[in-house]
Amino acid sequence: MKQISTKNCTHDDLMVNDAKIDVRKLNVWFGDNHVLKDINLKIREKTVTAIMGPSGCGKTTLIRSINRMNDLINGSRTLGEVYIDGYNIYERNTNVYELRRKIGMVFQKPNPFPKSIYENVAFGPKIHKMARGKELDDIVEKSLKEAALWDEVKDRLHNSAFSLSGGQQQRLCIARALAVKPEIILMDEPCSSLDPTATARIEALLRRLSEKYTVVIVTHNLQQAARVSDFTAFLYMGKLVEYGDTKRVFENPQSELTEKYITGEFG
Amino acid sequence: MSWSSLQKTFFALILLAILVLGVHNTWTMSNLTSTVYTMQSTIDNLNSMLGNYTQRLEGYLTIAGSTTVLPIIQTCANLFMQENPGVVISVSGGGSGHGISAVSAGYINIGMSSKNLTTEQITDPDPDLQPVAIALDSVAIIVHPTNGFVDDLTLEEVEMIFNGTITDWSHFGGSGEIHVYTREAGSGTLECFEKFFMKHSDITGAASEKTSNGEMKATIASDPAGIGFLSVGYIDETVNPLKIDGVEPTVANIKTGAYKIKRWLFLITKGPPTKIEQAFIDFVLSSQGQEIVEQQGYLPLEWFQ
Amino acid sequence: MVNLEGKGGMKREGQRSLLEKAIEIILFVGALSSIIIVFLIIAYMSLEAYPALNLDFLLGWFWDPKKEMFGIFQIIVSTLYVGVGAILITTAIGVPTAIFLAEFCPRNVRNVIKPSIELLVGIPTIVLGFFGLMVVIPFIRDNFGGWGTSVLAGWMILAIMSLPHVISISEDALRAVPNSYKEAALALGATRWQTVKKVLLPYAKTGILASVLLALGRVMGETMAVTMVIGNPRVAWIPTSILDRAKVLTSTILLDWSYVEIPSMHYHSLFGIGLVLFFIVALIDVTATYMVKRGVIK
Question: Which ipTM value was assigned to this complex?
Answer without folding.
Answer: 0.89
